[in-house]
Amino acid sequence: MNRLFCTVAKNVANNKQLLKRKNLPRLAVFDLDHTVWPFGIDGFQYIPPYFYHEGKLIDVHGQEIRHFSDFPHIFQLLRDKGIQIAVASRTKFPTGAYHLIELFDWQKYINYYQIYPGVKVKHFERIREESAINFNEMIFFDDEERNIIDVGQQLGVDAILVDHETGVTEKIVIESLENFVTKQNSS
Ligand SMILES: [Mg+2]
């Protein structure tokens, strides 16, 4: 077996070990626009009503509406690890966001919803109240730096900035969980 392969195999084994430990976050919080789907719902690139036609979710003009491809697999992966899920969005079109979540059939994964305009610190304070989960037991994904700074620096949540074009991927989630566990173990 060559050395590189050994190292890779060892790292994979270590990572699996890491993720089995107890110090995983208890809650993962997701922004919506450009984090779970590749558009801003209040930008009205897609005009309601949204509905399924021949197996595709479309808007009134027949444009297909898609979420980022690693969802809902990411939600399932988190659930399988016993991690609860919340969404925190500042959209000006909350009814559209709720409707899309319902149409994608994601309610079965999501435990807490905070969807309305305003600073995200408020969304998180409400999530903490509702869930009774501390900020340091949460992990947060968002494509906007201002939210990452607000929530990360002010509240101490482990906040991960994602590329707005690719959103959250399974790879990002796994790496972020590993980093979370490493930080917990070293503190
Ligand atoms: Mg966003």
Automatic annotation (TrEMBL):
On the tree of life, the source organism's domain of life is Eukaryota
Kindly give the Gene3D superfamilies that the UniProt entry links to this protein. Answer: HAD superfamily/HAD-like (3.40.50.1000)
The record's GO molecular-function terms, alphabetically, read:
acid phosphatase activity
Fetch the InterPro entries from UniProt: HAD-like_sf, HAD_sf, HAD_SF_ppase_IIIC, MDP_1_eu_arc
| Any one Pfam family match given in the protein's UniProt record, by short name | Acid_PPase
Name of the protein this chain belongs to: Magnesium-dependent phosphatase 1-like protein
Q: Organism, per UniProt?
A: Euroglyphus maynei (Mayne's house dust mite)
